[in-house]
Amino acid sequence: MTCHLNACLETQRLACRQSPYPSRAERRELLARLALMTRRHRHAIIEDIQTDFGQRSEVEIQLADIQPVLDAVSHARRHLWHWMRPWRVSVPWRLLPARARIAPQPLGVVGIIAPWNYPWSLALMPVVDALAAGNRVMLKPSELTPHTSALLGRLVTQYFSPRTLCVIEGDATTGQAFSALPFDHLLFTGSPQVGRKVALAAANNLTPTTLELGGKSPAFVAGDADFTRAADAIIFGKGMNAGQTCIAPDYVLVESRHIDALTNALSRAILKQRPSAREATQPINEAQRARSEAMLAEARNHGCRIIDHGAHAPALVIDPHQRLAVMREEIFGRCLPVISVKDSNKALDFVAARPHPLAIYVFTQQRDQQRHWQHASQSGALVFNTTLLHHAVPGLPFGGVGASGHGAYHGRHGFHRFSHLRGMFYLASRSPATQLYPPYRRWLLKLLRLI
């Protein structure tokens, strides 16, 4: 396997040397091919994702796996002419007449390690950004979604040359060997535990990394919020993909005097959105199911009040103890703790005392409170009065901070992430700047003392 990986990498490195700066037309054509592949084989993608999960809503696959890729391609093709253009920067007067530019340059070969929870979109959306930036890409999809990964491998072989894009299938051992390759950039999406190992492997080659890790993303519902609308948005975010979403609301904070009202609203929202198992998504495997149910059982055994409308729906855990697994670990399942706090400041303190999350969701219409959360909190994204939908905005960066990861992609931010922003300086043929060369004259020292 190591020999195969090295051969793929060398093939793409050779392609980079032969064509180090693909034209805009070439990049747009590759992106169009990616969209065509996704659109033409939409039904096969849906079928294989459903096979991997056992059961998954077709609507959610369309919303979260297929449409984001098509939107990302459309956005990149539309804006690529602007992203590729060098831009001017000012030059100090002492160096005039001279010009300075910043020119985006492809990095070379980009490695991408994709997760299992959204096996199509989270594999191909970084590919969109990397190809738009003029790179070659090696993609390692998750071994936990074997049917989708195999489909991706077959289709990429049909639509792309291995000199441009190739898919490496395999288990965790293959993933370890993949992360140890000397890429020009490596993007990993997954758990913090595996992310640390990937970063260590990449460090041996001084490979720059982008880590999209997750964490415990909180939601805070202020006293002025519409509890019904807030509950609908929170359950939408928690119910999507059975809670197996890195930006899903992990727990809810609410002022103590409103906890009963919000709990009732959340319960009604669950019954409205998830009345049966027909549109539900199953946990990816039995281990994931058992872990989620063990969290719920532990909370129940410790006397927590549980509101559970069935294994197909989010389950509310009211005011759990902080030592429980449901509060110590990223849930990535159907449990949803609801925690009472005194006020907004205490909610901020609660969030600030924990590792920085990938997203914070705040439900309030008060501008001063929105500004307070903007300035006093730290997270990958800050979202007001909804959940998840910020991920559908191609122009917003998607990424974490601190324990939730580093680096961001999507749109222009992804183009820059996979580019080297190269500084360029042009000195005029007749320039007084040459007077700075040795031997240094006495008048130069006097001038420098005056400046």
Task: Explain what this protein looks like in three dimensions.
The protein is of the alpha/beta class and 451 residues long. The chain has 2 domains: 2-213 and 401-423, Aldehyde Dehydrogenase, Chain A, domain 1 (3-Layer(aba) Sandwich), CATH 3.40.605; 217-397, Aldehyde Dehydrogenase, Chain A, domain 2 (3-Layer(aba) Sandwich), CATH 3.40.309. 45% of the residues lie in helices and 19% in strands. The strands form 4 sheets. The chain has a 7-stranded mixed sheet with strand order 10-11-12-9-8-13-14, with helices on both faces. The model has no long low-confidence stretch (mean pLDDT 95).
Give the helices and strands, then pairings.
Layout lengths: L1 H17 L5 H17 L1 H12 L4 H27 L2 E3 L8 E9 L2 E5 L7 H12 L3 E5 L5 H14 L5 E3 L4 H8 L5 E5 L2 H12 L5 E4 L4 E5 L5 H13 L9 E7 L3 H15 L12 H16 L3 E4 L6 E4 L6 H4 L6 E7 L2 H9 L6 E5 L3 H10 L4 E4 L13 E2 L5 E2 L1 E2 L1 H7 L1 E9 L14 H9 L1
Helix pairs in contact: 2-4, 2-5, 3-4, 3-6, 4-5, 4-15, 5-15, 9-10
Name the descriptors.
Aldehyde Dehydrogenase, Chain A, domain 2; Aldehyde Dehydrogenase, Chain A, domain 1; 45% helix; 2 domains; 16 helices; 451 residues; 6-stranded mixed sheet; alpha/beta; single chain
SS field, number of helical segments? 16
The CATH H-level homologous superfamily of the largest domain: Aldehyde Dehydrogenase, Chain A, domain 1
Q: What is the CATH topology classification name of the largest domain? A: Aldehyde Dehydrogenase, Chain A, domain 1
CATH class of the largest domain: Alpha Beta
Low-confidence stretches: none
Helix percentage: 40-55%
Q: How far is the N terminus from the C terminus?
A: 62 Å
For the record, the CATH architecture of the largest domain stands as 3-Layer(aba) Sandwich
The profile of the biggest β sheet is: 7 strands, mixed
Question: In total, how many domains does the architecture comprise?
Answer: 2
Count the strands?
18
Strand order, sheet with most strands: 10-11-12-9-8-13-14
* Global shape: globular
Q: Give the helix/strand class.
A: alpha/beta
**Could you report the average pLDDT, rounded to the nearest whole number?**
95
- The radius of gyration over CA amounts to 25 Å
Percent strand equals: 15-25%
